Amino acid sequence: MTLNFLVAPDFPPQNFAGWHMFNTVLQKRSGLRLHLLMPQNATEQSEQLASGAVDVLYANPFDAAELIRDQGFIPFARPVNRSNEMVIATSAKADQVNTVEDLKSGVQIALTANHDVKLIGLRLLEPADVTEQDVQWELVDSYQAAARLVIQGKVDAGFFLATAYHSLSKLTKSQLKPLIESSLKNISHVLIAHPRVANDIAVIKTAMLGVGAQAGDADVLQAMGLDEGLEGMEQEDAEFMIDLMDTLRD
């Protein structure tokens, strides 16, 4: 049997090859056949999830919360010291905008379909008295596209996953000005599995958590952008994260 392993499409382009390397290592060590799914955007990911064919998923926290609570997906691992922080940034040329409080009702913001980033970003906008209804949203497929719109002055600011922002090229970042970065610590991507493959989770988990212990593993993790590897995650840990996200929504 082949298990479909989907990776959420919100990592920097330079990490693409790393996930393929990781999948190859997992197959060798687990003895399982894993078919890697790398959707290009959130729409394609939604279509693949809707097909019911996804067995294992590296999900952003918003999608993980929904799949755990609504479809019974089982959480079993998460990145070590890799919380999902986000950055609000504007153009370096925006002399009149230096803090979040300088953003006003009607502000134009570029963002991807990452709901967790939007959720945290809206919380960070509260000091400016700007709500979701006060924003003109510009949806884009990637953080690179969001950066381009900000730099070109087509929007006032952008919402970025912090790891994606810090992975932008030096030239790109030199044309941006970060206004604020979150520091929540307890929200992260999560590895989850469909209930139908519950019997395979122990094998997959052991293989995943073991990457980092053998020669050459550090190169794989670095290529993925997860230098410290993965750690186990229990159901109660996932529920705590979900509760925190619910608090952010309220």
Using brief descriptors, characterize the structure shown.
single chain, alpha/beta, D-Maltodextrin-Binding Protein, domain 2, 2 domains, five-stranded mixed sheet, Phosphate/phosphite/phosphonate ABC transporter substrate-binding protein
Percentage of residues in DSSP E strands: 15-25%
CATH H-level superfamily title of the largest domain: Periplasmic binding protein-like II
Radius of gyration: 19 Å
Helix content range: 25-40%
Determine the mean pLDDT: 93
- N-to-C series of helices and strands: EHEHEHEEEHEHEHHEEHHEH
Side-by-side strand order of the widest sheet: 2-1-3-10-4-11
> How many separate helices?
10
The description of the largest β-sheet is: 6 strands, mixed
Protein name: Phosphate/phosphite/phosphonate ABC transporter substrate-binding protein
Pfam families: Phosphonate-bd
Concise description?
This is Phosphate/phosphite/phosphonate ABC transporter substrate-binding protein. The chain is of the alpha/beta class and 250 residues long.
Give the SSE layout:
Elements: E1 2-7, H1 16-30, E2 33-37, H2 42-50, E3 56-59, H3 61-71, E4 74-79, E5 86-91, E6 108-111, H4 115-124, E7 136-139, H5 143-151, E8 157-161, H6 162-166, H7 170-174, E9 176-181, E10 190-193, H8 201-210, H9 217-224, E11 230-232, H10 235-249
Parallel strand pairs: 1-2, 1-3, 6-7, 6-8
Antiparallel strand pairs: 3-10, 4-10, 4-11, 5-8, 5-9
Helix pairs in contact: 1-8, 1-9, 3-10
